[in-house]
């Protein structure tokens, strides 16, 4: 079954969603401290009320100085849930405001940082200001499973050696704290043929029915790199706004690009975090990973419109696509403009993942012929 058909099976069944995820809360909390009164102080000054909301944000850059030799480590995602379920517990505060918070001292008085499409129904954040509008959207589409996440069939596809995503950690000194690393992202259209390496033989977990090698996640699997994710041999998606603190990798991207079937999902103002741990044989791996950011409405509709329902792209089913479009447009909770008077045109997004040690292989084209929906015109816009 293709990734797109599996996606449809788990995303829509009355737009049905299946799959559950577990994600950690990353953490430094920025708490404002109110000034204390001292004898002789000017008591006519109104005391500052501390923000009562503990904004959930990634760990900040460490203050250590990088001096040692560095290494490059490649990880292949073995698990990905496109939309991490349960908006109350997962995600980061992306806009610095705990929307709908009413206690005194809260930033912006708890108002939305953009103008909601339906001002009488402002999308509210989860505890700690967590922005995860996509999870809230799908919980409304499937109200009997509020913790559901969108499972695109990624895990099965990765386990069969068909597709995955590579995360490359470069210029890393290997310690728990590193103030400056480079993180690159590649889409992979599958495994290269088995070949030996220091840790064993890639693909020695057997083959599928078509003779394709399966990864064994032992560090030797050599994953191809899609030629759409490299430019002149360099990664198309990478950032130097990245570090490791307390064993936690943090990478910030202006735009994070990830291929889903025939389409690409674009996350703006994105942050990727993951815990660097050691697995079997002391091999490094990424656990409790999170990719968070905002997706512009038009990109959301285009990407999900490309996913298959009954062997056809969702965009070709006017009734189902129309229902999804209406629900998505009414769930927009972030804006692309810093102006709080600008309309909300994006939805906050969180995906969770795990990744295992791998190798970057040969460059190859993506496995399909590209998008089929074409220009959706008005259907890619919110009414």
Commentary on this structure:
The chain has one domain (3-27, 51-380). The two termini are 35 Å apart. The chain is mainly beta and 383 residues long. The radius of gyration is 22 Å and the shape is globular. Helix 4 packs antiparallel against helix 5. It contains 5 helices and 18 strands.
List the helices and strands and how they pair.
Layout: H1 3-11, E1 28-30, E2 55-57, E3 71-81, H2 133-141, H3 154-159, E4 164-172, E5 182-188, E6 196-197, E7 200-201, E8 222-226, E9 230-231, E10 234-235, E11 237-239, E12 242-245, E13 248-260, E14 263-278, E15 284-296, H4 297-305, E16 308-309, E17 312-313, H5 318-329, E18 346-364
Parallel strand pairs: 8-18
Antiparallel strand pairs: 1-2, 3-4, 3-18, 4-5, 5-11, 6-7, 9-10, 12-13, 13-14, 14-15, 15-18, 16-17
Helix pairs in contact: 4-5
Strand content: 25-35%
Q: What does the main sheet amount to?
A: 10 strands, mixed
The separation of the N and C termini measures 35 Å
The rounded Rg comes to: 22 Å
In which range does the helix fraction lie?
10-25%
What would you call the structural class?
A: mainly beta
Quick structural gist:
The chain is mainly beta and 383 residues long.
Task: For this entry, give a set of tags.
globular; 5 helices; 31% strand; 12% helix; mainly beta
């Amino acid at each position: 079954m293709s990734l797109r058909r599996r996606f449809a099976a788990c995303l829509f069944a009355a737009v049905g969603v299946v799959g559950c995820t577990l994600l950690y809360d990353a953490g430094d909390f920025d708490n404002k401290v109110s000034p204390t009164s001292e004898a002789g102080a000017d008591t006519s000054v109104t005391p500052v009320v501390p923000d009562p909301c503990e904004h959930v944000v990634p760990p900040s850059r460490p203050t250590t100085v990088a001096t040692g030799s560095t290494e490059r480590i490649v990880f292949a995602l073995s698990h990905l849930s496109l939309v991490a379920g349960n908006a109350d517990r997962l995600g980061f505060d992306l806009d610095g405001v705990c929307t709908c918070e009413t206690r005194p001292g809260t930033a912006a008085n708890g108002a939305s940082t953009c103008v909601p499409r339906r001002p009488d129904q402002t999308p509210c954040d989860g505890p700690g200001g967590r922005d995860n509008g996509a999870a809230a959207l799908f919980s409304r589409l499937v109200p009997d499973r509020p913790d559901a996440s969108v499972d695109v069939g990624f895990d099965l596809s990765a386990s069969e050696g068909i597709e995955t995503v590579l995360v490359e950690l470069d210029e890393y000194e290997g310690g728990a704290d590193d103030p400056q690393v480079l993180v690159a992202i590649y889409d992979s259209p599958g495994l290269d043929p088995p070949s030996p390496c220091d840790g064993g033989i890639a693909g020695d977990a057997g083959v599928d029915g078509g003779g394709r090698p399966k990864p064994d996640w032992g560090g030797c699997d050599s994953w191809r790199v899609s030629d759409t994710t490299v430019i002149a041999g360099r990664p198309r998606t990478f950032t130097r706004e990245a570090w490791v603190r307390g064993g936690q990798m943090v990478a910030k991207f202006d735009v994070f690009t990830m291929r889903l079937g025939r389409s690409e999902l674009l996350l703006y103002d994105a942050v990727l975090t993951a815990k660097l741990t050691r697995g079997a044989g002391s091999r490094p791996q990424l656990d409790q990973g999170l990719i968070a950011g905002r997706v512009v409405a038009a990109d959301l509709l285009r990407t999900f419109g490309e996913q298959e329902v009954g062997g056809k792209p969702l965009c070709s089913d006017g009734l189902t696509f129309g229902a999804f479009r209406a629900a998505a447009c009414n769930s927009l909770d972030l804006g692309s403009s810093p102006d709080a008077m600008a309309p909300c045109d994006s939805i906050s997004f969180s995906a969770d993942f795990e990744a295992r040690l791998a190798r970057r292989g040969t460059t190859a084209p993506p496995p399909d012929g590209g998008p089929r929906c074409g220009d959706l015109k008005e259907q890619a816009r919110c009414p």
